[in-house]
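Could you help me review a protein record that somebody else here produced? My question to you is simply how this chain folds and whether the tokens agree. Thanks in advance; the entry in question is below:
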Amino acid sequence: ALGAGRGRIMRQLLTESLVLSLLGGVAGVAIAYAGVRWFAVVLPDLLPIYGELALSGRVLGFAAGVTLLAAILFGLAPAWQASRTQLQQMLTVRGDSSIGARLGGRGAIVIGEIALCMVLLVCAGLLTRSLLAIAALEPGFDPDRLLTLQFRVPPGKYDSEAKIAAMFDRTITEIRSVPGVEAAALVRATPLNGNGERFPYAMHGVDATDRDRLPNAHRNIVTPGYFATMSIPRLAGRDFTTGDRQGSAPVAVVNEELARKLAPQGSALGKQVQLMDGDDPTWLTVVGVVGNARHFALAEPTLDQVYVPVAQKPLIFTEVVVRTVGEPMSLANAVRAAIWRVDPEQPVWRIRPVTEAVRGVLASREFTMRLLGSFAVLAVVLAMIGVYGVMSYMVARRSQEMGVRMALGARPVQVIGMVLRQGMRTIAIAIVLGLAASYAATAVLETQLFGVSRADPFTFTLVPLMLGAVALVACYVPARRASRVDPLVALRSD
């Protein structure tokens, strides 16, 4: 009315939008910086990170671009709408007191916020339940008070199987003599350390000519006393003995899973299994059956496992596993010194407790859960701010209507109920859409889940209830403010 053109109005409103976005972007960078420092603290030590964990210039540039785009898009729409205002209508209508003002496009934005928030919450909930299920699994052995280390004898110095076997015998004898060592053994690969070998195997009566069609078994090479050291229960038969050496009958100990396949109706003791670990595979006679032990991962399917004695299959690489009386790392130097008494030039590495290997298996899943959970919490905060802002705006627009209703006898509780019903209808729509979007999104997570389905009823019930309760609080604050409108003030407002 005073002569401002459409362009002037749009420039003013866009400038305001850009200033707000700039302030938000600066605050976002500060939060991101603090968040990266926080992740550096909570990041599991066993999770490999290559390079410095810091803000990336490219990521900041992308974020700045998104901020600018949001400022333009969400500033342009209301600016365009304001520039098309009919002057006569605006000068005659009583301000923002239009009775029956509704949420409109702002409600659609809130619905989108809450729906996306629900997707993050559901995914974080499923990952949390999956991690708890994995952590509750029994690994098949007792990792407490177990120390492990690795070494590899030089083939030039130990150029025969007899020399390797003799060196291993002296080494394990020296380690067992260390004060504080409860039990000790050598093993080709300790569970959950990332090492291990699988080979096809055959049973009597099975065509072994096509190895590609044979089932695979995990083979491990151990010294006598390994199962007692690891607390892997012996279910039948015997452990390896010093008599199981080169020249004696090839023997094996199998786990319970493979024993059931070798003898579905009886005992697997005395049965034979042929492990295809070379050009001339040997038939191994089963002399013992032990419990199933998880080797590559806690969440893996139960493996067929074959154990053979070190004296019959001495290889240059091995690991030491020691059951200690006290804290495992307190004996690290003593155990290493025992190995050096046998060979002072023998390098030893990767000395660590077995419990660290167990934590390492869970580390990546735990970090993913924390990361997604942090994003979900942030999304909840943003969504609730959106709900509160839209409902407050709606209440402000309808303040005269609220005054009229209360002047005609409406009680405060009725006004609160009216505002809550409108807000919760929007929330209900968002939750329904969020549930559908969450179920579609969990298809991507399905391979990462364990012990829980992608349509887990508990998660898909708890998340909507929790989100609905938080949204109800966000709606209640402006609803209560609406119930306190003074009818006389509202009716006099212009």
Observations:
- The chain has 13 helices and eleven strands.
